[in-house]
């Protein structure tokens, strides 16, 4: 029974890490898009993406917020967001690559990185409650726990494999 649990935990670890890798890749794409897109292009994209929702409900909170945000998106804010997304995405992809390759340094680095993300998200949740951010934080806590579990069992798995 214990080996079934270990196998399930290992699969969940791999899935969680792959999701983080996909998230990092999307952040890279988003950062590049922000660097390349102009203010009017961003406003147009947001208008197209929110048009149907605003036709159905002109007071939709999320769509209305996105439109307002795009209208007041300064060049400095856009550059900051682009650099933030690029750096965040690169760090996540490096973390994922190290974890999937089983590199020992990647486990404590990933746990520290995840703890920093979780702490920041907790701070944001305290000041600005958000169900979506709450869900993302729960997912991050779960992935961090799976990383710790995998890290603790790494020597046992390595000795069984070789």
- How far the N terminus sits from the C terminus, by CA atoms, comes to 23 Å
Looking at the structure, what is the overall shape?
elongated
Looking at how many chains there are and whether they match, the oligomeric state comes to single chain
Provide the succession of SSEs: HHHHHHH
Descriptive labels:
mainly alpha; elongated; disordered C terminus; single chain; 162 residues
Structure description:
The structure is a single chain. By secondary structure, the chain is mainly alpha-helical. The protein contains seven helices and no strands. Mean pLDDT is 86; it is low at 158-162.
Task: Break the fold down into its secondary structure elements and pairings.
Layout: H1 2-36, H2 39-56, H3 61-71, H4 75-100, H5 106-127, H6 131-152, H7 154-161
Helix pairs in contact: 1-4, 1-6, 2-3, 4-5, 5-6
Task: Please sum up the structure shown.
Helices cover 88% and strands 0% of the residues.
